[in-house]
Amino acid sequence: MNDFSIAISDLVDDDPVRNVESIKNAVITKLRESDAAVRIESTDYFNHTYAPDLVLRWDRDKEERHVYLRTSGNPAYLREDVAVVAERKPILMPLAPLRNREQSAELGSESTDAGTLVADPASLYGISAGKRERPVLGLLSRAVLQGGRGLFDQARARSTSDAVGLGFVAAQQAEPELTRDAVVAAESLLDPAHAGQLTRLLHAVWLGSGAPATSFPGATGVTAELDAAGLQLLLDIAITDEDDFWRRIGSGVSLERLCEIEVGATSENLQRLVRVNLDHFKAKSCRISDEPFMVDYGSEPRWFTNSGVLGYTTDRYRALFSTGPISSLDFMESIEDGSVELVELLDRATQAGLNISELVIESSTGGRIDYKAPRDSDIYSDETLQELSHALGRQSSVLSAVVPIGEGSRHLTCDLTKRAASGRTVARFYLSELLHNAVPLLRSLRPSERVFLSEFAPMHDIHDLPIRLRSSSESAREIEE
Are 328 and 321 in contact (CB under 8 A)? Predict the structure, then answer.
């Protein structure tokens, strides 16, 4: 007799409402042990034919599943229930042990066809109990709650956990037999959507090992695109520090997908994933703030994801990158005015080896000029610009600057008043391009910080650029004169 059977036997007590509440609370505890992310709502019903006893919801996945508690373990009664509520593809949860093996087999077949999961709380918890040693079981446990089907007893929980746990390790080593067993176990227990979630994870790890996609066992047509839960799992597990692995994982992940999860700056796997995929991940906008992201790692930049954006932080500033417009970065505590004198801007550009094609300059008296450099010229040797700067006075401020990218085929506008940068219309840029072209203009950098940018966003030798012979200090002196 289990805890639930004892509680059921006490339902004839003077306070049946309290007994029902006790049963529901015990079930809720087991469900939360299975998946800490699930939100559980208890209804006013118990053992009702049509109304669920519990409603499970997941905010991130926007999924919902109804749970019907049943006091009987008679498979014949449960088969009738499957026929009644199967349209909602719910979870039927018998609180008493199942009887009659022959009828149980029929119940398993019918519930699988109906997309209904028949499982007791202990069986569901049986998967997640091993997630500390095998973190992939945490993902499996959630997938069972969301999309499990068929009869799921403790024996099946053990066999499925073993198959998926061993298959995940096998996929890292491109071992086909155990990987195939995991794929088969997932497809047998889960609906197609959630089986695909686990299969994509196995496929991504398979590719990360260096094995070809064509050799992946089972599940033909699967792609390497990970969902958020699978990506979170990979980043949480210390699989390998090999760059090739994380490069291959990155090939199946977009920046949008990465920003769906929250990963702190302490994650070494995130540092590896972003570092080796700077020329793969694309963003639409970025912004700089002088407020570090509450992490003390010294001057070495550390990547993190937060509130739907990717960023890195140092001891002096942070940079955020978004797949949306600049307005998507407005959650910063403050928007700092980063406008600077023309001398300072040109010094920053020269230090970074950048050319500038357009400028918006404003004087302290309100004078304003929109300036565009002549075609095929560089702004550093433009005599007209120097004359305009002199006419506006030393207190002139640069409000914005445009940097041509890709031999002028694309243009990145740096709004210094907002310390932000974005392209025109729907243009997107590789992170390496934003690191090289935007960050050095939006903020004054230390030599060590410029080294970081040059290492992770390499550029051509400065002598190959149209700046030619002059240093930043020489450019500054000429403009001041």
Answer: no
**Amino acid found at 21:** E
Residue 145's Cβ-side half-sphere holds a number of Cα atoms within 13 Å equal to 33
Torsion region of 393: left, alpha or beta (phi above 0 gives left; psi -120 to 50 gives alpha): left
CATH class of 3-152: alpha beta
Backbone angles phi, psi at 413, to 5 degrees: -95, 120
- Can you tell me the distance from the alpha carbon of 98 to that of 46, in angstroms, rounded to the nearest whole number? 19
The mean of the pLDDT values for the chain is 85
Mean pLDDT of 165-191: 95
How many CB atoms are closer than 10 A to CB 283?
Answer: 25
* Structure confidence at residue 10 (pLDDT): 54
> Which amino acid, residue 64?
E
Q: CB 477: neighbour CB atoms within 10 A?
A: 12
Span 116-125, average pLDDT: 90
Integer Cα distance of 49 and 86 in angstroms = 12
Whole-number Å distance between alpha carbons of 33 and 308:
27
Partners of residue 55 on adjacent β-strands = 41, 66
Integer Cα distance of 468 and 464 in angstroms: 7
d(Cα 318, Cα 332) in Å, to the nearest integer? 10
Cα–Cα distance for residue pair 163/5, rounded to 1 Å = 31
pLDDT value at position 13? 56
C-alpha pair distances (Å), 320 with each of 285, 444, 447: 8, 16, 21
Tokens 């007799």 identify what position? 1
| CA 457/CA 312 separation, integer angstroms | 14
In the predicted model, is pLDDT for residue 280 greater than 60? Answer: yes
In the chain, domain spans: 3-152, 342-480
Rounded Cα–Cα distance for residues 208 and 172 (Å): 7
Residue range 67-84: mean pLDDT, rounded: 92
Q: Which two tokens stand for residue 417?
A: 């008043």
- At 382 the pLDDT is 74
Tens of pLDDT, residue by residue over 239-262, are: 788 999 999 999 889 999 999 999
Residue 15's CB is within 10 A of a number of other CB atoms, namely 11
The secondary structure element, H or E, covering residue 478 is helix 472-480
Q: Which two tokens stand for residue 313?
A: 């932080």
Q: Rounded distance, CA 34 to CA 140, Å?
A: 10
Q: Would you call 372 helix, strand, or coil by DSSP?
A: strand
The number of helices, as runs of H, and strands, as runs of E, in the chain is 19, 17
Which H or E element spans position 33? helix 16-34
Query: 276 — alpha (psi -120 to 50), left (phi > 0) or beta?
Result: alpha
Q: How many CA atoms lie within 13 A of 67 on its CB side?
A: 28
Neighbouring-strand partners of residue 58? 63
